[in-house]
């Protein structure tokens, strides 16, 4: 597996969309907590509140963050820190496995 590195002080692998999906699958309904720590304005997301698809909701939130954040902070380390703050251990472990 090829790992791209981001130039910068963190030295954390750059995230890809497939990484976001893997994390979203583990987040479940806790995705909104991670949104708070990532600074994502969930009111701007096009999420159907009646939808029971928590994976899709989580992915949309993560993708919104991914698209709008500074490329230097679009790393495993940044996302892992937000997951840790939100106490989303399963998603954090998934991300840690991807970084290896």
From TrEMBL:
Database matches in CDD domains: Death
InterPro entries assigned: DEATH-like_dom_sf (IPR011029)
The protein's name in its UniProt record: Death domain-containing protein
Organism: Octopus vulgaris (Common octopus)
Phylogenetic lineage: Eukaryota, Metazoa, Spiralia, Lophotrochozoa, Mollusca
